[in-house]
Amino acid sequence: MSRSEIKVYRHLMGENDLWAEHTRELLLKRRLLMLNLIGSPGAGKTALLEAMVGRLAGKFRFAVLEGDVETTYDAERLVRIGIQASQLLTSGGCHLQARMVHQALLDLPLDALEVVVVENVGNLVCPAEFDLGEMGKVAVLSVTEGEDKPAKYPMLFREAKAVVLTKIDLIPYLPFKMERCMEFIRQVNGQVPVFPLSALKGEGVAPWIEWVAAQREGLGKGSA
Amino acid sequence: MHELSICTALVELVSAELQRQAPEAKLLKAVVAVGDLRQVIPETLTFAYEALVAGTRLAGSTLEIRHVPITARCGSCAWEGAVGENYFICPKCASHNLDLLTGRELHLESLEVEENEPK
To answer: Which DSSP letter does residue B51 get?
Structure first.
């Protein structure tokens, strides 16, 4: 008997990343922007999507891929107000994987869309680890969660292409300090744009929509 | 619990590599590198590994996790070093322009196997 060591160098996300790559190719070919919204349960991800509808004014047509552990409540909520939405159920899984998203994308009327938003399962940890083939992860943080979350969940905030800070209409009732939150975000990701907004009142939603539209416009023109 | 899906991929990779490189050998240990930026709980990963290999030809093998610290290079002053406490600001020039060098690893590095001597 002899012992020996075999050197291997293989990424554990290999299969997931392969699907993510297929998705990226599909999206780029069609000049479709796909964003991956990640935040805690109750951070306001669905409310953010609802707030976008009435304020789009012909900027882009979008569809939503709703990731949840159980129930189709969120997709129904969006369909009711006229958003094209498909529900992806993970049945216990804490995150969406690239293969699921790829297959769901193929069921969408892609020719009638400019933007696809994936609303990931409410969770700040697991979804950050999985590439879905999106052009950018968007961290959704509500002011009720506290200022220090970016430092506690650095993977997400480090990878995020944008941070949406929700529920700012509640700031007067909270010990939340905007300045401190911005410091925590900057500490983890110095360059990331931050959009403080209230989906409920509409304040701050317009600059966020402008940013999404600009990302779509920039697709295939060097930077995405 | 994303450890379970990571581990499922890991066990598939280990089986395939073993089959390809040493089809007759018995696996003793698989070594994975996990960057500290990854939010992977080592105990959960080893627990998932043991559960997944039970009853397969990998049964009895162990999983060794090699932690890789977060390090970065400053795009402004070229400082290189460890990033502590998730503080991605250059300690030398206070720039936010840090490029990650290590810390995102998540890969299978090596397999330790036991082989019968050729007769």
So the answer is: H
Fold of B2-114: hypothetical protein PF0899 fold (3.30.2320)
Q: Write out pLDDT tens, residues A101-154.
A: 999 999 999 999 999 999 999 999 889 989 999 999 999 999 999 999 999 999
Return the residue in A1, A2, A3, A6 with the most chain B beta carbons within 10 A, the one to mutate for interface testing.
Answer: A6
Helices B2-21 and B42-53: crossing angle, nearest 10°? 50
Has the ipTM of the complex gone over 0.85? no
Could you tell me where the DSSP H helices lie in B1-119? 2-21, 42-53
Among the four given CATH numbers 3.40.630.30, 3.40.50.11710, 3.90.850.10, 3.40.50.300, the one describing domain A14-216 = 3.40.50.300
CA distances from A112 to A4, A60, A103 (A): 57, 10, 17
Question: How would you classify residue A61: left for phi > 0, otherwise alpha for psi between -120 and 50, otherwise beta?
Answer: beta
CA dihedral sign of residues B88, A159, A10, B39? positive
A130: which chain B residues are within 8 Å (Cβ-Cβ)? Answer: 2
Phi-psi region of A44 (alpha: psi -120 to 50; beta: other; left: phi over 0): left
Which residues of chain A are within 8 Å of residue B108 when distances are taken between CB atoms?
8-10, 12
Nearest Cα neighbor of B116 from A204, A2, A110, A194 is A2
What are the tens digits of pLDDT across the range A10-62? 888 888 999 999 999 999 999 999 999 999 999 999 999 999 988 888 899 99
CA distance A197 to A220: 29
